[in-house]
């Protein structure tokens, strides 16, 4: 089975990664690629690393012909814009996977809290299934609309949910994030100008705070816990990757070995979760759809280190994983990328 | 068909890359992996990025049981050592692809010139077919022993051979190489200590001069020309990749467009050669088996810029490509890695 | 006044930085430089970036002639070895500034706790004045023996001491450290091999835990508080610099502005402490002797971000600053290095 | 003596470097700093790494009050604009050092050839003395107007002039340039967006071709030779530095030792030229005003490797050096920056 598929917004890094994955996915027939910046050009001419991968002509998102028959649409459009097009295609009966931050809360009040403005289409929110594959697989199956989980939320949620379901911790959780530059997009700006940032480590422009609320929502929905979450993001001079160092204050001592066993059980059948003996490094998952988890205990706290590739498990990779679940394909179809070492 | 396969020397970067590729190759059944450094450990425990890819126990190369039935063997052992084991397995009827520099010359005199010592098994040299896929495909088919081409030789030879077959150039060719750190191996040393090299660009320890002779041999064997070749290698702070900037002094003016057409024709059916409109950047092929070529004309010289990933098209990728040719598999089997962008 | 000066152990990064500083210090007359690795060579031949800075012949530390008249000695020898030579020269009446971790605790029990072994010369510990310039200036003046503060201790202590003297915080402090590769020395090892670490972020080999105890000692000695300190160190792919993100749980709300004023007052006359409006980036102090501090309040915690160059304010720069204090020179003599931007 | 000094255009990297140097120069009294981007802000607030270095308020270049008494002016304005202001202040009797590319040719025809347009003020060209300190020192003394040499021209000219004055070479010279990202300015653009370039090596956007003509002019003026020069520039992922690999085809064999002696004699008294035993690495001069030169002989060519820090000896450092020469200060005043190692 080949799904007639569109990707909206292939210009940015997430769109580029998704195009790379779908161009080789056995169940995908790419029919539409949109790009405002490169519209009118052949895809593989605009993106030299993809020479030979697609001869589709890039079109503006507003110019997709109504006659184009589509089974599936991925939107990598920016938050705020994405839901406009998601809604339009959903009404036509197209299955949609939205990679923006528009539809990740079912409650409009949560959206407003996270984004500081009300959602554009409140009624759309309740239709979207939250696309965090490992935790929400049953609801993802056959869903018409998936709100792909955010990169920080995926990295933190998969790291702490099994723990919080099992153990009691003090009220507040501290998450110290180390994030790569691809998390802040493809548009050139001073905060990502090579010469200035290559030897810098800084909180400047790191952002991601809206996903604090997304994580809180996950903790409540999947563990039933209400916590305070201190989310602090520092930009690190690497291209790809997110590391979350989560500090959880314990009520009683727990051994890392016990926790490792708990996690190994929890994620037993999950192809993309790796439970490690040591806190993992970011490079160990680079270019792949894995998330790796490691643990240690210090000074009455439990420290969980989680790493993923923000463009893969944090975005395009998980979108493909969710798509595989929706349509009942083997969950790792098209996701066999080995971490790039070195 | 699944070939019972051994990889000798999986510890280093070339061995690691080859293991990544073969672990997912549909025609390969990995049976033996050797590593002196990690012998006794499970492969995917020793190499955390490959967790789940292979549960074989790593053994020393000297301890491969005689009873092990093998169809195919790849050697990533160091030059000098590799031919000892190549010879042994070849005699048993195992097909061999040697990635070392031991067998790349058919004439012992050339070997001596390049390496400063005589070859260990001169009689082995004439049995080995030079594994530069695009130029030597017909001889590679069904060959029992392949001497996989060197990374610098591949990058320079594929760049200049079509030109030299067609046009006359002055006697000497200058090749200015920019090479990444993975070309100098995995053993820690001052010249690759992070703190010292990250902001450096230097000829120190760049090496590769033995491949100057390999390239000269290719030019003679495939173009019938004898040239002087000035090979100058500068180490650049990137992980993967080689760029060769080849300066050829012309007798008469030639337009880049004409040359592009020539190359497009020459490499018409080759899946892994990209003829570009602009001199390509190293990152455009990173992680993939492509070599990209670009051209310009300046001051009576023709400048050819070629880039490849030294661990892929420069080593393990081309080894798999050669293996596909030897056994008649589609040439890109197991080599669908998209260049990693960004 | 010119002090006849020796530096023991100039091979490593701290020794190199110190040699750079002292070669241009107006009150220093360099007489002895030791290096085991480069002994017998001229200093500026062994260290090409210092060509023309010193024609002294490097000698092994054991071969310093007894006849050499010295006023001052800096030891950059490794912990464990340093105190042997410190003791010897101290007995001869030479003033000593020790940059190792041998003498940073006055109480042998603290030393044992931090290092897991007893100190070699317990009696020496009580003679050493702790060399954290801004906090201990009065005792440093005229002291015969200075134990230069550690890089992590300096970065954390200067960041949290004014806060803890003024405000009450919950019992435990979490310090998430981001550290550069020069903190782990000049000896090549897999954990600092360029190809493997350039795109990695990892806790592997980050170390520094002995300085947790050093910080606890400072907090007790200078603020009178006993705390639990969770110290977690992650290695970041930059050459120079340390960032400490300190999380302090508050009993009541405090505004960053109020804290900024407190710090501006506390460090009012200190040339090398910068109180910033925003959490500072590591590059903003690179190559200089500054430490920069920034603040924010989140979820009932106060977050203090501090950055310094580990080879300067974290080691050699502070050693020179301490020396200036000992001898009554203006505190910034020889320390006018502007942060390198970009 | 303190010169009342203005810097026009301190926003960019050259302006920033110059401000760093002049803020600590004993003969400089900074009175005016212009910046279009940051006008109205305090200098050390706009440039956090310079906190405490200057409390001047940045003004637009068009708003410098006529009443401001100035002895000296440095212009770091862009080419095309710079000469407008240079002319204005020169007419007022202010000494001017222009760091732009506006005035580096005395012959308007050369300017037109290099820039593709005619010079704005042809009469100004003949008044400007070319500011390549080591080669033109006598004419720089007391000159009212200096056209500071370009970064590529300095790196290549100082490397090849002594050679070409002494030896005959074939007609064409090939210069393969490796250049850092600070050579292409501070304005964010796709070609310098961190995520895309950090692992790339590419000729894209490298530019600098106008300096080919500047170099040809130097070769003619200082050696009396007319050559063809092939200038090919590749961008390398480092912050600071230029390496020029110059290939000169010989008529007869010359030993590197002989050449080293020649250069040592030629640059005997020059504080900032280092003649090395090995081809030098870029990092060995980073942050300093040195240029380092190394040599080898290969295949009938002489290869000269030269490195400098493009913001120092390639721009702001040499501007200060020229200023010292103009006013008769010791040539290294304010230029004691030690190369930053590591």
Structure characterization notes:
Four copies of one chain form a homotetramer. In chain A, helix 4 (108-115) packs antiparallel against helix 9. Chain A is globular. Chain A has helices spanning 13-22, 43-46, 82-91, 108-115, 122-125, 133-140, 151-166, 194-197, 210-223, 256-266, 312-327; strands spanning 3-8, 28-33, 72-75, 95-98, 129-131, 145-148, 169-179, 228-235, 242-250, 273-275, 291-298, 301-308. In chain A, the strands form two sheets. The first copy, chain A, has a six-stranded parallel sheet with strand order 2-1-3-4-6-5, with helices on both faces. Chain A has eleven helices and twelve strands. By secondary structure, chain A is α/β, with parallel strands linked by helices. The two termini of chain A are 36 Å apart. Chains B and D meet through strand 7, helix 8, strand 8, strand 9 and strand 12 of B and strand 7, helix 8, strand 8, strand 9 and strand 12 of D.
